[in-house]
Predict the structure.
Amino acid sequence: MGWNGKILRVNLTEGTVKSEPLNMDWAQKYLGLRGLASKYLIEEIDPKVDALGPDNKLIFATGPLTGTAASTGGRYSVVTKGALTNAIACSNSGGYFGAEFKFAGWDMMIVEGKAPKPVYISIIDDKCEIRDAADIWGKSVWDTDEWIKKRHQDPMMHIAAIGVAGENQVLYSCIVNDLHRAAGRSGVGAVMGSKNLKAVAVRGTGGVKVKDGMRFMKATREAKKVLQENAVTGAGLPAYGTQVLMNVINEAGAMPTRNSRDVQFENAHDISAEAMATPRKTDGKPNLLTNQACFGCTIACGRISKIDETHFTIQNKPQYMHASGGLEYEAAWALGSNTGVDDLEALTYVNFICNEQGLDPISFGATVSAAMELYELGLINQETTGGIDLKFGSAEALVKCVELTGKAEGFGKELGLGSLRLCTKYGRPELSMSVKGQEFPAYDSRGIQGMGLTYATSNRGACHLRSYTVSSEILGIPEKTDPLTTDGKPALVKAFQDATAAVDSTGLCIFTTFGWTLNDIAPQVDAACTGEWSPERLLETGERIWNMERVFNNKAGFTAKDDSLPARLVSEPAKTGPAQGLVNGLAKMLPEYYALRGWTNDGVPTNETLSRLEL
Amino acid sequence: MTTTTDTIQVTLKLYASLGAHLPAGHTRNEARVEVPEGTTILSLLDSHNVPREACHLVLLNGVFQPPGSRGNARLKAGDAVAVWPPVAGG
């Protein structure tokens, strides 16, 4: 119950499709989605496998609450060995694809091998087919979505696809579903492209059975009331979206700016939530049209925007003169503050292209930012960039870069490598603001100390969604801690990591935790799923998942040396703001973190820890 | 006999739904305001009719001010007070 009890195994090399029972013993230990799919991946691939080779596997996984009446219960994840990081990757997405997949009767799909020619997978309830994708190879995510719906004569299908970025194996390409929701990080799109798999199209007409229907409805109703009455999830997020953070983080002096040379962006306001809602001088209309919810979501933080039709980015391009996915905070930061670009309409256009071509805007923006620093230092020039004057603050340069990167044309081919490989090529790897090869997101860890430990220890490379201590250190949720001190941060990071791993394995959105604790989530899981699920059991499950991921990474070749931060963050003090004069205190936090985790001084889980967690 | 009160200039920044309480002529959600010496954060916010219960995140020069201290510390010339209702993102 909660789970459908079935997985789909698709071998693209052999062209076969088969149904298998879900391993319910594993479901009891790893729950679903991130945890359960990671267990399957770890059991089935060699950790040292080539991420872009046919022996890597690509798993689309739902959780037991995906497709149910629980608020935000529409999530799915893509789990694989990441192309960008060579670490375990799990990229979570909303929209409607995940719920539709569950309605078709499946819990997850394991994709193996490599198709001899481009294909897409269609799943219509229990009928799954590998179909020819010759007509859509080379097309955008948006055109692919339209083509498949026409081909099947079914506008109700939900489609997860790669754009040209994934086809060209841009190392931070993503998988986009429902036009502008994405399994965004770690290069899962490149893995999909390496398998010649263009898209997965799903139509499901069933439902999801839960263990105790009456109790489940009561639990979800009460939990929705909590979200509704919470000022953040009931009012702040729907009205302003995540973008409201732009001024908050800038004011707190933790805004990575111009490749983290600065911690405050002088024009942050011009690309903020407040700016998105302000009527433009040119046409009197705001950039933001409305908010939007994913399946079953009662928060609705998504942004829908429309670009000013007079803006230089879309002249003679009517295909971009419509409403589409607008800027979320991470994208606005990566494309804006981090490159020094303060043109809101240009950033919206670049974000549209990221959705259309299937690029992770965080890694793309951070890579352009690193390239801008290389350019300013004279390590690359216009001969390298193909004539692009790649200076910080140039919207024109940013736009040219995005138009080249997905297509892997000119300098875009180099940008598609990600910042670490790019900076290494030009002799300055330390200018890549990344951990384990993945660019970090929108929080400077000199101004938010806990985020330094979060980035350094994240199992999928630098990421905010593995342990969002910003919630406590800046926003005061669930309780306020001082962002400028390392004291108490190892325990805080561990607690966030374990709880997040559990929530990520349910099928719920992590944003619910601005209003919910595991005490709100456990009754919903318990009413839906076989077994007894308490908050304590969820937390233990999260800790088990975290350690399992760590063991995989260790076997893949990662060591304690990889739990590090770019030199700039630990040696160049912040120049302004509350953190002025501070660097990140990672060296102080890491030993305490290892001890709390039950790991050796070398960052390896001890046998005692593995035994306690039944690993 | 007359008395004079010295005044200082501070910057008031009100974001999200609190922006409606900014004085006329503000730009980018902030305004330079003149206040009497000795003004506290609370008295500054009260003078602009900002509902106290809506002031979740209050930063003085970027540093968080817990509710208990907002009525105590006196503002200095050039200080910046930034305030948000309950918000989050990520």
Summary: Residues 14 and 22 of chain B are 7 Å apart (CA to CA). Chain B has a mean pLDDT of 93.
